[in-house]
Every structure is written in C-alpha cells, then in structure tokens.
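Changelog note: in this version the structure field was regenerated for every chain. One regenerated record is shown below for reference.
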Amino acid sequence: KEKRDDVKEYILLILLLSFAITLAASGKGAEFALGGIKLWAAAILPALFPYFFISAALGKLGVTEKTALRLSPLMLRAFNLPGIVSYALFTSLVSGFPVGAKIVSDLKNNDLITETESVRASALCSTASPAFVICGIGAAFSSARFGIALFFTHFFSSIIIGIIFSFYKRKEKPAKKAREKAENRKTADNILYECAYSAVISVLVVGGIITVFYVVTELLSLIGALTPIVGALTALTGDESAAKGLVFGMFECTKGIYALKAAGATKTAFVLAAAIIGFGGLSVIFQSLAYLKSAKIKTAPFILSKILGAAVNAMLAFVIYPLFF
C-alpha cells in the first residue's frame, strides 16, 4: 500500500511539474487563472456564499433537526433516509452544486446520519440550481423553454438516482433520531463568527478548485490534447460545437455549456446539456469531494452516482424533448 501511495505521489508530482512548465512556456498561466477567478467571482461567489452562511447558521441553531422530523416518513419510504436529509435535498435543489455535499458532510460530522446514510444522501443531494439551469442555460440558448425543460429533466433524474441509491446497504439500521440530537445540541458561543468563517472558507475552496480546472481545460485545449477527442466525437455527432461542449463539460460544467450553445437549441444539444449537468464535470465532483472527504464519506459511490446521473439525464432528455419542442 505504501509503495502504491509513493507511485501516486510521484505521478502527481510529474503531472504538476509538466503543467507548470507548459504554462510558463506558453505565458498564458496568469491569463487562464484570471479567467477562472473571474468566473468564480461573477457567477459562483454571490450565488453560494449566502447559502453556505445560512446552512451553517441553521445547523448551529439546531433548526434543521427540529423542522425535518415531519418529513421523516416520506424520506424513509422514498430514499431510505431520515427526515433531516430533506433539508440538504431542498437546499441543493435551490442553490445547486456543491451546497448539498457541504450540508451532507455537516450532518455526518454532527452524527445526525450514519456512514451508509451519508453515501445515499451524497448521491441524492447533488443537483444544479434552477437559477443556473433555467436562467443561465436558458439565456445561453436564447430559449426559456429550453432551460425549463432541462431543469425538469434534471430534477426527475435526481429523484431516480436517489431511489436507486436507497438500495445501498438497505438492511442497515438507521441512525438515532434527529430529535435526540437536537435536544442535546450545545449552542455555539459566537454563531456569527463561526458561520461567516465557515462560509468564507467554503467559497474559497470552491473558487480554488474552479480556477484549477479552468486553467487545466484551457491548457489542454491550447496544446491540442483535446483535439483527437473532439474530432472523434464530431465524427460521431456530426457537430463540432456539440463535441467541444461535451469534452469541455467533462472538466467544467459552465464552460461546456457555453461551448455547446453554438450548436443551437437542438435535440442533440439538449441531450448533451442534460448529460453535462448530470455529471457536473470534474470541477464540481472535486468541489463535492472536498467536503465529503472531510467527513470521511465514501467517495467511490458518489463518483458512480455522477456517472449514472449523466446517463439517466441523457435518457430522460431524449424522452422529454418532444414534450416541450
């Protein structure tokens, strides 16, 4: 095991050095990094910070445990999860990636859900926000209907993924009731400071990961590493814009969608956009893993859920598209 870890470290070191040398040689490093930071500051920071702060405050006050108890029967029957996870699901649906993963990790760290329940919850509570899908993507394709249809596709796909993962270690006993945890919770001495600190650190982590993947994507595109993949997908789809969108979307969701918009609001673009959102891109996956790993939640099932999410989103999009267009 130690030898395998050493090999991984050497491979990572070589890759990082290679990227650093290439960036230095191209002279584009600062430009790419600035582009990633601008994307984070303009689109991500204002959208996520309030939700990170509010979710931290509600967790400190114990509000989530007390209010979610009423939804326990529904959550248990549908997703084999306690009612407390309904808060993570609702917030994920409203605010998008990676807020759901952050809240699930908080629930796990506070011993409000078990390790098995945290795996199920991480698969369920990983969704794009309606603002991003309906407004952002709809505006990109100059069609509000396109965005609305895409959001319904993504919503139903998320429910299906949650039901599928409800069978993960289904026979395991549930956690202690959230009511007991809420009653025993100690009030924080300085809630405002702790919540602000937690929210700031969270958005900075997200911004760092987004910038890294933005730089990597731009660099790979610059050196032509993505050209063969784009060429193969172009031959398969018959549309270079669709191929570029899918390839870029594998790394960063937003960048992929904006590359895909050149294909127009076609059925192919709709299906590929749904797949990109379902997968989230490596950037979103690593943003989520940053929180899941901190709570020692298994990451392999989560990654599997994102791959499965891309497939389910694409299949649903293929069926739903004729209903809207």
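Spot check on this record: The two ends are 54 Å apart (CA to CA). The chain has a mean pLDDT of 81.
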